[in-house]
Amino acid sequence: MNLKVRPLMRRCFSTSVNTGEQNLITWVRREGGRVGALDQQGSQEGGWGLRTTEAVKAGDTLISLPPHLILSLETSNPLLLALFDRVPEELWTVKLGLKLLSEQTRFQMSQWWPYIQNLPKRFTVPIFYTSEEIQALQYLPLTHQVHKRIQFLNEFVAEVKPAIVGQAPQPGQPFNNYQILPHALAWAATAASSRAFQVHREGGGSSLLPLVDMCNHSFTPTGRLLQHSSESQSLPVLEVVAEKDLEKGENVVLNYGPLSNDILLLDYGFVMPKNPNDRVELRYDDQLLHMACLVAKVNIDSFKDPTTSQLALLTRLNLHGPSSSQMVTLGGTELVEGRLLAAVRVMHAQDPMELLDVDLEALQTWNQSPPLGVLNERKTIRTLIGLGMLALASFPTEIEEDQSELVKGDISENHRLAIQFRMLKKRLLLDTIKGLKARDPT
Ligand SMILES: C[S@@+](CC[C@H](N)C(=O)[O-])C[C@H]1O[C@@H](n2cnc3c(N)ncnc32)[C@H](O)[C@@H]1O
Questions:
Q1: Ranges of H-type helices in 270-398
Q2: Are 197 and 298 part of one and the same domain?
Q3: Contact status, residue 139 vs residue 425, Cβ threshold 8 Å
């Protein structure tokens, strides 16, 4: 990886949080915001979190953030706007990162300076991992994303260098004539990915919300983010309200959304055990499914040689054809993605005639009575179990080995996270296999 840790700018920043004048709560209040009975505390998740300092009633406002403290993409700098145009829409974190860097390089001149000084100096997202740590993830869909992001950041910085390096002082240069290195942009884009919230206004847009972004994540949140806006174009007033009655000393945690562990690690740098949104991705592939049949000792040739009616149904499931999407998932309460379940049922159909008027919706869900009969269901379930076993076997290590690697004291924080990530994927596959076995009609 080419994202070397180098000084962020030509000037160094302190890595400690100054609880004096830079205290975010004091700053937000001074700026006209309202902050209820809260304080900023070291959290059990690591880093900072917010906690109540007295009992609070459900619906009470804990934070009210004035619109001018929202750090959005809004800018009148034409050079910065030109840079935004060169970033693909889906990489909004890079755009917001560029805006953050443009404020950071203004130091005390930026109205967000007290906020920027409090941002973490390091992140545990995989774009900062060594190649050994990336390899330790053992999961191709994620490592692919990591490499894609690293490559984009390196290429982007190289490509726009003349615009942002500023060898000679240039009026309007968005970074105050500071040189932006790939590592600095990676830091800023990660600050954006791990801390931004979607702000509802015309044109949409994710923005950094000082202090609100001190709230950690939970799927059982104690706080909720509300947005009030009189005009659709203007930035709203943002409020964190108590989701339920809270006692003194309770953590104020928000639900960041239905995110998988892939996204949590990639964007936020942590993973959640028992994450209801986590899945294992794999490609719907005839050969792989044929192998799954062999592993599960299910006798079938149709995965290699499908009939016309089977192919027609695979096309309707968007698993066959030039613009089809062959990425399918295992895991979760549904155990397998509906399209995959339907496809395997279709491929195990004994008689092509029974596929003529088949109900595609019914094929994609677990029903009381198997839609194509008990024998078909048995073969389908066994094939899916075989697929789960193959997915499990594609990891180079077993959970027990991961466990013993974890208890070794000499691994980095990133390496530890990578091992935890892959263990959760393996547990998810084991749970899926168990769930499928319980559905076997034999
Ligand atoms: C919006 S910030 C929350 C405040 C942050 N803890 C801090 O110190 O500034 C999101 C980051 O907090 C951490 N975080 C939030 N929820 C977490 C959780 N449930 N488990 C572990 N880390 C969490 C992650 O580092 C994540 O990138």
A1: 286-295, 308-316, 338-347, 360-363, 374-393
A2: no
A3: yes
10-residue stretch averages of pLDDT, the chain, 442 residues long: 36 37 84 95 88 97 95 93 92 96 96 96 97 98 96 91 62 84 95 94 82 97 90 80 98 97 98 97 94 90 83 96 96 97 94 88 93 94 98 98 92 97 98 96 74
Indicate which residue's Cα is closest to atom 15 of ligand 1.
Answer: 216
Q: Is 217 in the pocket of ligand 1 (CB under 6 A)?
A: yes
Same domain, 228 and 375: no
As for how many domains the chain has, the answer is 2
H-helix or E-strand containing 80?
helix 78-85
273 lines ligand 1 (CB under 6 A): no
- Tokens 């700053």 — which residue? 27
Using the structure block, give the residue that is written with the tokens 């260098």: 161
Taking the alpha carbons at both ends of the chain, their separation in whole angstroms is 51
ipTM confidence score: 1.00
Dist. CA 213 → ligand 1 center (Å): 9
* Cα–Cα dist 199/189, whole Å: 17
Residue 287, domain member (yes or no): yes
**Contacts of 162-167 spanning 24+ positions with Cβ under 8 A:** 163/79, 163/82, 163/83, 164/83
Is the sign of the CA dihedral 395, 399, 404, 405 positive or negative? positive
Cβ partners under 8 Å of residue 137, min gap 6: 126, 143, 146, 418, 421, 422
